[in-house]
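Sample 1 of the test manifest.
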Amino acid sequence: MPNANIYFQQREPSPLRQLWLHVNSNPFAVVAFYILSLALVVMLGSAWLTPYSPDAQFADAILQPPSWDESGEINFLFGTDDLGRDILSRIIAGSVYSLGYPLIAVVIAAVIGISIGAWAGMSRGVQSSTLNHLLDVILSIPSLLLALVIIAMLGPSLINVMFAITLVLIPQFIHVVHNAIYDERYKEYVTASRLNGVTRWYMLTRVIFPNITSVLVMQTTFALSTAILDIAALGFLGLGVQAPAPEWGTMLARSLDQVYVSPWMMVLPGLALFLTILSINVLGDSIRAAIAERVRNS
Amino acid sequence: MTKLLDVQAISKYYVHKDGWMPGQRICALEPLSFSLERGETLAIMGETGSGKSTIAKLIAGAERASAGEIFLNGQAMSSMTDQQRCRHVRMIFQDSLRSLNPQITVGKQLCEPLIFNTQMSPQDQKQRVHEVLRKVGLLPDHYHFYPHMLASGQQQRVCIARAIVLEPQIVVADEAFVALDPSIRAQIINLILDLQEDMGISFIFVSHSAEIVKHVSDKILIMHRGKMIEFGTTRALINHPEEQLTKTLLHSEHKYKVPLHSTTKE
């Protein structure tokens, strides 16, 4: 046990904590972090947070403007759409489609991609190259196009879109993990651990992994912003989530008809999408800057 | 009785591959043999790129020999696993900070060899690491430190602690004292001599410094361009060097003496 609190001691923070402090000193990153946390909380609690059912129609309040407008009412905070549905409820419920499903796609892609990448990074020679370039052909097709191809074959649905996006994200994870492990593998501390007689599994999980977590966090944030954009874009085109479901991209597409009559129907879901993606990108970027800063200092 | 360490005709080639063409063989170490008794200290000296570090790495098992064999207590080292070997031979690396994992506390890194090579309980491991930290002149408090929080001399001590935590028979130090300033270097060399007295360890160390070599070693091995050109006891090599290079390396400090009247005062 450290016998602390006898003298004043200045402790240097641990490497991961240093990273956090660096991100924390950037106000934009902090704001982005709070917006993202809020979006995640709203997404998880959407079943309890929505004031009305997202599909409930109020015949007496069609195209009600938002509450801050002169003719708006407080019981429909963000107004209603052309079928009399509450937009606030729809945006909150839509976060499950627009943030929750991309999150699941990224988690699945990360699990598969990181395991293959780690395997490739820990093996050598032909085996390593084969695993590393296993899914490279997918990289040559843009993600939206691949999703379109899969939808053309299997029909438009959320599951097919998820499948396409996951498939596109996997090779990126494989490459990032493989390269990160490869960079670490020939460093002296890994040799030192090998000479300690550690097993390969311990080497991967306890020795190398703590050193590449920051790279993984960065890759995950960028993958997440790609996935959100793709699901929204396919929803907008009418190929992903189908119409009555309150997905943000689908809501944008529906609002196109009434954009002059009721601009709030377009602005509010668009703003939600914009803020989510912006905050993810800002956060990912500041993590990358923090890593670069630490590399420069050490 | 067999010798502690018996090196028989080991050599090392690197294949430098360029594109698809068959690679070019580069010789880092030509076949050489020597042996070492228990409790002795061997110094390896030579110019940069003469293969000193290669010998150190081969003995410690960080690299594999292209040919030849190293026997430890009469047992061939190439048939041992990393685990078997590390109970007998441990290495101290040249760059102490780079040879420590930056994301893991010092204590956990020192526990690592104990987890895989002993049947100690976690409490015993911690106890042992505390003892070893005290032995190298650090405090048990340093258990919770990360490597970058320590000064370079302390990092060097952690590396020594890692080398002796398993109580090995041989410790190989690859230019471990180069980056230290003279006072800390003296402290650490004294520490190593004390440990050698306490635990009967054999040391093999690579060094440029003639003073340290004369002070510490029992035997000296001189390398030149991958070849062993001289091997013998320290006294013999200092008093009767056969090669010019030996003389130069061991008496190098005299050559840099500046003539008394050539200062900028004039």
